[in-house]
Amino acid sequence: MIGNNLKYAREELEMTQKELGYVFGVSQSTVAGWENAIDVIPFIKLIRFCNLYNYSLDFICGFTRKNIEYGSFKTDKNKIGKKLKELRTKLKLSQQQLADDCGFFKSTYGNYEVGRYLINTMTIYSICKTYNVSMDYLVGRINDSKINK
């Protein structure tokens, strides 16, 4: 889903894969890999794309069909970690339960939650998909999120 929406957004901006690759310092074939779901766009590049071209993460990731322009924001792994912990606490889950539900290791998730590392694209995507939560909320772009659980 991310690849399809990334391609849609790029075409809407009337950019070629080569031009987008230049913006990110990657090759045209790397952009093609992201768009064709051969590779996953690194989260930091996904955020940069959304910041540069006024797309919401939720739109690019396919969680909503309507783009909402929130404006740019600064990536903060500690702030994201706090939002992850807030979500987990609200859902009354242990780190192990959340990791099991989403299919990754507890230790990996724990490092994201304490802000040791910036979460990767597929991990945050899995959390958002599993718990029906906004990615824009988890990165701190918006203050409210509807959680259906």
Task: Give an account of the 3D structure.
The chain has 149 residues and is mainly alpha-helical. It is built from 10 helices and no strands. The chain has helices spanning 2-12, 17-24, 28-35, 43-53, 57-60, 77-90, 95-102, 106-113, 121-131, 135-138. Helix 2 (17-24) crosses helix 3. The longest helix has 14 residues, at 77-90. The model has no long low-confidence stretch (mean pLDDT 92).
* SS strand fraction: under 5%
Rg calculated over all Cα atoms: 15 Å
Mean pLDDT: 92
Number of strands: 0
Helix content: 55-70%
Q: Class by helix and strand content?
A: mainly alpha
Low-confidence stretches: none
Task: Give the biggest sheet.
Answer: none
Write a brief structural summary.
The protein has 149 residues and is mainly α. The chain contains ten helices and no strands.
